[in-house]
Amino acid sequence: MHYNIRIVYDASFRFPQNLLRGNVFSLGNYHQCLAINQPEGIRGKYCLIQTHSLQIPILAGGNVTWAKIDNIWSEENLRTYKAAQDRLALSDEDISRTSVVDIINGAPSLTLAVCVPRSCKVADVLESNYNVEFNYTEQFCRLPDDKPYSGADITALVIFSILGCLTIASTAYELNHIFIKKATIKPDELRSCFSVYNNTDRLLTLASKPGALDCLDGIRALSILWVITGHSALVHFGTYLSNFVDYLEWSVNLRAVYLLSAHLSVDSFFVLSGLLLVYTVARKMKPIQLIKNLHLFYLHRLLRMFPLLAAAVLLQASVFHHVSDGVRWNRVAWEAQKCRDHWWSALLHIQNLVNPRGICLAHTWYLSVDVQLHILSPLLLFWVLGSRRSAWAGLAAAILGSLTFVTVYSFLMNFTGNQDDHYSVYFYHNTLARSPAFIIGMLCGYVLHVSRNKKIVMPWWLVCLGHALATVLSGYCIYYVHSEWSQLAINFNIALVRPAWAVSLCWLIVACVNGYAGPINWFLSINLWKFVARISYAMYIFHFPMQFITVGANIMPIYFNFETVVSRLM
């Protein structure tokens, strides 16, 4: 029995090291605890607790509370926490946020792991085996093999087995047709549509097509990489860090601006979506044709997005929950449960309206907003596809109306400027609030459409002025901070920063297409970007679940430094 107690104790917490730099976590040994299986029938149970009013005898040889310990948190550290708390506000379900708030108030709460026998309560083990007195809240407990299979797992097994068989059969048919029969006619498109050979060949064909807007590939590729790096920072460094103070000091440094301003990449995609909508449709349809083919217009958009999104929803609800395990796996389990509960709203693209706080695949709020903007777009497209006068008038009215709405809405809501839950639900995921960038993209698409196959001639001073204004606008959007600003300034910034980013991006696109961007256009038009751009939707859909799995499998606090940032960006 003493041996069993030693195993349980060895897998439990120690007093956190590096406490003065923000480490309030001692996570024990997760896998060792759950592996306990003694002949006496003792099985391990891993539990996390959060302390309150902690007393630590080892600091001064007796019961010394935090309030009696001088200079545990220096004034400089507290100011750093205060400055960065709002800017890096974590989601409500993240227990790190509670710890940060407690630290700011001068009373750090610790997150500690306790390994107990399966039949025991945490309180019984702490009272009988640990010479420490403190109040605590039990967060959760984990048991071995506590991931029961569900209907979603069976559904995933059946569907992906069928898809796997179709892929094997389609690939075998095409390889047999090309290499064994050596047929001169092309394989049947229907029977070869699932072929790995055929689809890989199409994916890796990077030749540029006549009339293509090649610079958009570079913008799309860089934007998706920006999205991934921003989410990586949010997921990895909004978790258990052993030196949280170092992270906060880094986060207010200019070196971190690339990650902290990654939310602007979403507006880049809204711009590209609106631009391509007008640029492609304006060449094919007239207003009456749009009305007659409205069902096909919607169906084409939805079918392009559905297969990959449906696969990701099913994987998140089933397979991803079973691929690994770790201390923070409760977040992965929560993501799986959200998809089991709200899969239908994800596929119908209404998540931001019906369950904004329980979105299946949290990042796919963008798809819901994008689809809703496309559903509303014929209200403007009807005029854009008509005469040039109606097109310019319609676009000008739409931009003015959207900017007016978002400005008035910002002043009515009086957001604090923090990326908190209230801001996310009522502005960040709000379709009308995000419409200005989409409509500005439509305007840019119309400019490119009317100048198709001809160059827009601009004097050199206008080109220089445009580049200067675009640089100033984009630089301001990336580098501005508002922690000390008045509510008036915050309201204007929330309303107008994203449209300003859209305007600067549209200038860059117009300059590239018309030959006024020099090496920038060369860089954005490199053929290699085409490959990244083609798989950008898949990268977007799957990167967030993969990052949650990586973080969920962690069993120790992460030590933050620049090398960690670089290594965890993928």
Would you mind describing this structure in some detail?
The two termini are 46 Å apart. The chain has 570 residues and is mostly helical. The relative contact order is 0.12. Helix content is 60%, strand content 5%. It has a 4-stranded mixed beta sheet. The chain is built from 27 helices and 4 strands. Residues 55-74 and 84-106 have low confidence and may be disordered. It has helices at residues 2-10, 30-34, 57-60, 75-85, 95-104, 122-129, 151-180, 196-203, 215-237, 244-251, 257-260, 264-281, 287-292, 294-317, 329-347, 351-354, 365-376, 378-384, 388-413, 421-428, 435-450, 460-479, 487-513, 519-524, 528-534, 536-552, 562-567; strands spanning 25-26, 44-52, 111-117, 135-142. The chain folds into 3 domains: 2-142, no CATH class; 151-199; 206-567, no CATH class. The longest helix is centred in the N-terminal third of the chain and has 30 residues, at 151-180.
Short account of what is shown:
The chain is built from 27 helices and four strands. It is mainly alpha-helical and 570 residues long.
Features:
570 residues, 3 domains, mainly alpha, 5% strand, single chain
User: How many strand units?
Assistant: 4
Approximate strand percentage: under 5%
The whole-angstrom Rg is: 28 Å
**Nearest-integer average pLDDT:** 84
Note the total helix count.
27
Give the low-confidence spans.
Answer: 55-74, 84-106
Fraction of residues in H or I helices: 55-70%
Described by the principal axes of the CA atoms, the overall outline is: globular
Number of domains: 3
Q: What does the largest sheet look like?
A: 4 strands, mixed
**Neighbour order of strands in the largest sheet:** 1-3-2-4
